[in-house]
Amino acid sequence: MKHSQAEFQLTDKQCEVRKVFATSARYLLVYGGSRSGKTFFVVYAILTRMIKAPGSRHVVFRQDGVDAKQSIGNETVPAVVSLAYPDLVLKWHEKDGYFEAPNGSQLWLAGLKDKARLDKVLGKEFVTIYLNEASQITLEALGVVITRLAQTVRQTDGRVLAQKLYVDLNPTVAAHWTYQMWVLGLRPEDGKPIPDHATEYAHITVNPSDNLENLDPAYVKSLSDLPERMRKRFFDGKYTADDDNALWRRAYIKHEAPPQMKRIVVAVDPATTNTPGSDETGLIVMGLGIDDKGYVLSDDSGRYRPEEWARRAVSMFDTFDADCIVAEVNQGGDMVGSMIAQASPKRVIPYKAVVATRAKQVRAEPIAALYEKGKIRHADQFQTLEDQMCSFTLNFDRKSQGYSPDRVDALVWAATALFPSIAQAKNKPRVSAPPPRNTAMSGRL
Questions:
Q1: pLDDT of residue 62
Q2: 3-state class (DSSP) for residue 365
Q3: Residue-range definition of the domain harbouring residue 429
Q4: Given 234, 266, 292, which residue is the final one in a domain?
């Protein structure tokens, strides 16, 4: 099947990417800013490979299967087919989660968190594996899926189709495994050089400025106006280093499956507005395990209206069978407890309102020390939270950074609740009385 170059033209940068993809490199990384055309081109390359090699199997992994189906299956694949291969008819198999071409080639979509479906996918061999939005994907997951890059299949011209791993992401910190492997040529687990790196690995940067003909100028300007750290990632497409003066080091953050929990709290650092430029609401679930270590179980932080974060806090309380909701009330006062009460009518929700009497940095220091001593682990990869932790310094200036570290704030309150004796000296909160509208709620930390 052919497409008409008169109807479909790659951008100049996409032509550069195609040259990189055409090399003998087996492992290919495309990184850069938001809406730069990375995903579109990789999907285009995969569809081209499907057409060239009848009966070939290809798979796209994202952290969440729902995201893979929505972003890749419902948006990118139809867009690429419409522009590049309008005569190509793909049949979607809902039960198993793959597209099938008329020549028998398959394109599977899978989420790394969906164990039942993942096991089915990993039972097959593929000639192409694509890790989309790899900033959310762990090195351990890469190690599992790469073993399935093993299908041998021939093209219609009789030549064997080369096995390829494609990876893309908006670049995060330089400690991320993608930067270590592709840019530095080092194995992330031990820092040793990767054998045959020069021939086996290739990478290229693609940014919004390379895709201007397909973007709204107002969107491009909004990216260029972002605070420095965010602009580097989403506009300049650059990896950033952790701040040398940060309270947390990347090495402090260990990931481990949690044991049985002795106590669980939901911590809320609420924003009182939800308008452009508003702070996030920090929403962190943290537990104390039977091993006496703390475990961050969930980060559901984001920009929400007050009624939204209240509903989410109650939902997380129920989902994790938590013992208490802890909320900072410096900004919202009695409104915080009132919103939680409205989100849980006719129920008893143990609730503690805490007031910050010291600076964020002072409250965070003893919690960072717990991480350094190995007393707190993360049950999953919480990329945004961890990036925020590793850029949080003693002289952190919200105005110059362009954001408030609300995820870190919620984390600190959760850890303070679970380790009160550790944080007591510097981080002793003043506990307020329950608000009048919250008389049905009671409980203790």
A1: 94
A2: helix
A3: 250-438
A4: 234
> Token match 């949690």: residue?
258
2 found inside a domain: no
Name residue, tokens 């479909």.
8
Which is nearest to 214 in space by CA: 40, 437, 438? Answer: 40
Cα 220 to Cα 95, 181, 212, 267, distances in angstroms: 39, 30, 8, 36
Q: Is residue 242 part of a domain?
A: no
Q: Cβ distance 171 to 31 under 8 Å?
A: yes
**Span 106-144, pLDDT tens digits:** 999 999 988 878 888 999 999 999 999 998 888 889 999
For residue 107, give the 3-state DSSP assignment: strand
- The first and second tokens of residue 413, run together, are 């309150």
Q: What total number of domains does the chain contain?
A: 2
Share of the chain above pLDDT 90, in %: 53
Residue 112: alpha-carbon gap to chain centroid = 12
Structure tokens at 272: 């009182």
CA dist 133 and 142 (Å) reads 13
What pLDDT band is residue 332 in, cutting at 50, 70 and 90? Answer: low
d(CA 244, CA 266): 30
Domain membership flag for residue 1: no
Cα-Cα-Cα-Cα torsion 135, 139, 145, 148, nearest 10 degrees, comes to 120
Half-sphere exposure of 67 (CA within 13 A, CB side): 14
Amino acid at 374: G
Domain boundary among 167, 201, 234: 234
If asked whether residues 332 and 394 sit together in one domain, one would say yes
Both tokens of 40, joined, read 């579109």
DSSP designation for 292: S
Q: What is the CATH classification number for the domain harbouring 106?
A: 3.40.50.300
Domain at 397, CATH number: 3.30.420.280
Residue type, 324: C
Q: Strand 164-169 vs strand 128-131: parallel, antiparallel, or unpaired?
A: parallel
The CA radius of gyration of the chain, in Å to the nearest whole number, is: 24
**pLDDT, averaged across the chain:** 86
Q: Using the 8-state DSSP alphabet, how is residue 315 labeled? A: H
Q: CA-CA distance, 193 to 140, in Å (whole number)? A: 19
Q: Name 315's Cβ contacts closer than 8 Å, sequence gap at least 6.
A: none
155-190 tens-digit pLDDT: 999 999 999 999 999 988 777 899 999 999 999 888
> CA 330 to CA 328: how far, in whole Å?
6
Angle, alpha carbons 312-313-314 (nearest 5°):
90
Residue 327: φ, ψ to 5°: -135, 135
